[in-house]
Design a protein that fits this description.
The chain is built from nine helices and no strands. The chain is elongated and about 60 Å long. The N and C termini lie far apart (about 60 Å). The protein is mainly α and about 200 residues long.
Length: about 200
């Protein structure tokens, strides 16, 4: 029985990986379960068995990306030894090299667009935004008064998303270090204004 559970997980991951590649190749969510299943080397019926409809498969793909992102940030946070280092860890994780793979960029861009019209995608986007804000506030509250920490967390969240989107849409090889530098400069500038 354990082997069957293992195979199910392998197939789910293969379908999620295939969904990422199909979305990347097409540059949109205009993909079918049959196309995704074919790329994963399984039947359409099996894909429907594991995920139900296309919407559920797309949402599972986005949950996978969010989990990967979260794991990479957690690894960096574990190494951080101060509140300021925690901020840097969150920023570095937001612009990690894995966030700039072509398939990941395509998926994030389509995810943002999908969140405008699909309640499931909108809910996942809100979860991502709340987690980002919570992580930022956790560090900022030790560096600035409460009201300033709240304001900085909002600005940083918007800046991280905006810089990521700008880098992703430039049509050239991305420069994660440059993106990190922009956000770090923002932090330094605003924390420098906070009264000691």
């Amino acid at each position: 029985m354990g082997q069957r559970i293992g195979m199910a997980e392998v197939r789910r991951r293969a379908l999620i990986g295939a969904a990422l590649l199909e979305i990347s190749d097409r540059g949109s969510l205009d993909v079918t379960v049959a196309q995704i299943a074919s790329r994963a080397g399984v039947s359409s019926a099996l894909a429907h068995h594991y995920f139900g409809c296309k919407e559920d498969l797309i949402l599972a793909t986005m949950r996978h990306l969010l989990a990967e992102f979260g794991e990479s940030v957690v690894v960096l946070l574990r190494r951080a030894e101060s509140p300021r280092a925690r901020l840097s860890a969150i920023i570095a994780g937001s612009f990690g090299p894995e966030q700039f793979h072509r398939a990941t960029i395509s998926a994030w861009l389509t995810f943002y667009a999908k969140a405008l019209s699909a309640p499931g995608a909108a809910r996942l986007l809100r979860i991502y935004q709340r987690r980002l804000r919570s992580n930022l506030l956790n560090a900022l509250r030790k560096l600035a008064p409460a009201a300033e920490a709240e304001r900085l967390a909002e600005g940083l969240g918007a800046l991280i998303d905006g810089v990521y989107l700008r880098e992703a849409l430039l049509g050239r090889p991305t420069m994660p270090a440059a993106a990190v530098s922009v956000v770090e400069d923002y932090v330094d500038c605003h924390l420098g204004r906070v009264p000691a």
